[in-house]
Amino acid sequence: MAEHKVAIVTAGGSGMGAAAARRLAADGYRVAILSSSGKGEALARELGGLGVTGSNQSNDDLQRLVDQTLQRWGHIDVLVNSAGHGPKGPLLDITDEQWHLGMDVYLLNVIRPTRLVTPHMVKQGGGAIVNISTAWVGEPSPMFPTSAVARSGLAAFTKLFADQYAAQKVRMNNVLPGWIDSLPQTDARRDSVPMQRYGTADEIAATVAFLAGEGAAYITGQSLRVDGGLMRSV
182 falls in which pLDDT band (50, 70, 90)? Predict the structure, then answer.
């Protein structure tokens, strides 16, 4: 048994990704962080981890991240896929290029690193992948059109992956944040939430840590809302 568990966090330089990296480090994980800014490297230094500057839209950058993680620690137990922000706008004004970018940001950001990490998890006897998605995946909002479309695809991909790899003890689940304090805050948005407040990035991080850990060992293929009761569908 390895002395320390190892987690990779993509798009982990700020916001919910960074909060997840901090929480996992506090829980005793060795953490490798990919960020397109220098913030990921700075956070990794602070956490005693590994920071790589690169994009989750680049297979080469992701391969570098995985290679360096394995060179340093020898195994990967957890992959957390965070995301940046994709194109927005009136539905039919969104161009082909913007739709493709939305798929890159919100769907392929998961598929690319999952391809690279899964064989190692299978070989070592298990692992957990947690994707930070959105609470609006089941109730699409015109505010986030490319996110809604691509992340509906992510929900389907998660089910397909879970079915295929459950027997090898590799799990995949999605966290669905509502209005979180790493986003711009407005009174109207706050008042729309039954709990009457924004969630915190730390609350998302705690959910990520739960789904990554042994307490969630029998949970796979699921999408868990962390939205203060905002979504109405059952």
Answer: confident
Spatial distance between the Cα atoms of 157 and 129, rounded to a whole number of angstroms: 12
Of 106, 80, 76, the C-alpha closest to 172 is 80
**β pairing state of 30-35 and 6-10:** parallel
Is residue 115 within 8 A of residue 92, CB to CB? The reply is no
The CA-based dihedral angle spanning residues 208, 212, 217, 223, taken in that order and rounded to the nearest 10 degrees? 40
Which helix (H) or strand (E) is 117 found in, with range? helix 108-124
How distant, in Å, are the alpha carbons of 9, 103, 113, 176, 198 from that of 148? 22, 10, 21, 12, 20
- Written as one letter, the residue type at 3 is E
SS3 (DSSP) at 156: helix
| Residue positions counted in the chain | 234
Residue 180 token pair: 């979180």
For the segment 69-79, what is each residue's pLDDT rounded down to a tens digit? 999 999 999 99
Cβ-based neighbours of 11, under 8 Å, separated by 6 or more: 17, 34, 35, 36, 56, 81, 82, 83, 84, 109
Angle in degrees, CA 49, 54, 58, rounded to 5: 130
Distance CA 187, CA 227 (A): 16
| 96 residue type, one letter | D
Tell me the residue type at 99.
Answer: W
pLDDT digits (tens, 9 = 90+) for 81-102: 999 999 999 999 999 999 999 9
> What's the pLDDT at 1?
43
